[in-house]
Amino acid sequence: MNETLERWSSRRAFILAVTGAAVGLGNIWRFPYITGENGGAVFLLLYVAFVALLGLPVMMAEILIGRAGRRSPMQSLGHLAARAGHSRHWRWLGLFGAFTVFCILSFYSVVSGWSIEFLISAINGDFVGQDAAQVGAGFDAFLADPWRMTFNHTLFLAMTMLVVAAGVTKGLERLNNLLMPLLYLLLLVLAGHAATTDGFGPALAWLFTPDLSAVTPTVLIAAMGHAFFTLAVGACALMAYGAYMPDHQSLPRAAVGVAVLDITVALLAGIAIFSVVFAQGLDPAEGPGLMFVTLPVAFADLPFGAFWLSLFFLLLLLATWTSSINLAEPMVATLQGWGLRRGRAAAVVGVTVWLVGLLSVLSFSSLADVKPLFGMNVFALVTTIPPEVFLPVGGALIAVFAAWVLPEAVSRHALDAGPVGFRMWRTTVRWVSIPLTLVVLISGLI
Ligand code: PHE
């Protein structure tokens, strides 16, 4: 396939598209519970450090490859490698990325289904007057009902695949860009309101006073994995976006903007959620249900709380909807590259993801104790291994490709950051990002 001539309509459009991929369940659902499970401040500190040292430079590497290749990820990798005198086999990295997003989408859809459930409950006013324990009991009853969960998972995945099949993602992106500031605003109000509650002081202490003696390989690997996950880096998903990046736009500047926004959203969600945790004496390490049992309580004291809670879940669903469309796109594009028509490709991807997603659904009932690997059930496996192992492995390979395989002239042109910016980026990737990723991965494996 030849170079695409399509470009995002403006620099801003490119940044908004990358933000759409980055901001999602990772910030509002995954960040708080993983932080809670990994000791709070020490995790937060490492995660921010990893975003700066690994996430950002590798994000630039990934987008740069797409921009230089101007093709689908597999084709860009194969084409650029061949032109530089390297093996075309590099293209399989694109397939590995598609496999990674496949695993991620299988649980992403299930958890987004939980948001559908909470949206409906919030609209019905079910949470009015409930404390966290009562919300938690309702949530557990929901998790124990595979039929309801399957229904929501099916609904969400159908919503995603229909948009992908129709290829009308542009309109949805526009709606997303219009409404996301409202989600940020709601989070800001929520965090501000948290400052007036008893839980705020302990929450800040828990989030911002790290105890460095608590650093373990588990915490390191969790923090690294989350840095990749939240930025959507390591699965060649952003590479696909790079192909449409306009000429004359500094890549580092765009990437830093996205990362700052991404961390800010996570922090606001964290402050709001942990304030409730400490005010109500909950366990920060409660797990994947953390966001769901705390947010209804966080909104309860606000005037018209039930309304704002409903709006919040609606906006969250929109954010996860666009993220999941981004997750599905690389797989559909790969199948299309193999000659399938778009609608067929979307159907194949949808059905397979749906089936694998059922294993996550059942992980809360009949398959709860079926632990195929590392003593984890399927939901625990798919929420852990792809973010913590596949994304860093993919990210390291992407970084090697951009900083060692590509000729300097090509990567320098695609980074578009001037000679000094380019040297800083390449030195960081070569001597910090790649070795650090490998060291953390290996320490985690041992
Ligand atoms: N970054 C997305 C989120 O935070 C998830 C994602 C991961 C999207 C990997 C694409 C690729 O929700």
Automatic annotation (TrEMBL):
One Gene Ontology CC term in the entry: membrane
Subcellular location: Membrane
Keyword Membrane on entry: yes
GO molecular-function terms, A-Z: symporter activity
Transmembrane segments annotated in the record for this chain: 12-29, 41-65, 92-111, 150-169, 181-208, 220-244, 256-282, 302-324, 345-368, 388-407, 428-445
Topology of this chain in the membrane: Multi-pass membrane protein
Keywords tagged on the record: Membrane, Symport, Transmembrane, Transmembrane helix, Transport
InterPro entries: Na/ntran_symport, SNS_sf, YocR/YhdH-like
Family, per entry: Belongs to the sodium:neurotransmitter symporter (SNF) (TC 2.A.22) family.
The protein's name in its UniProt record: Transporter
Lineage: Bacteria, Pseudomonadati, Pseudomonadota, Gammaproteobacteria, Oceanospirillales
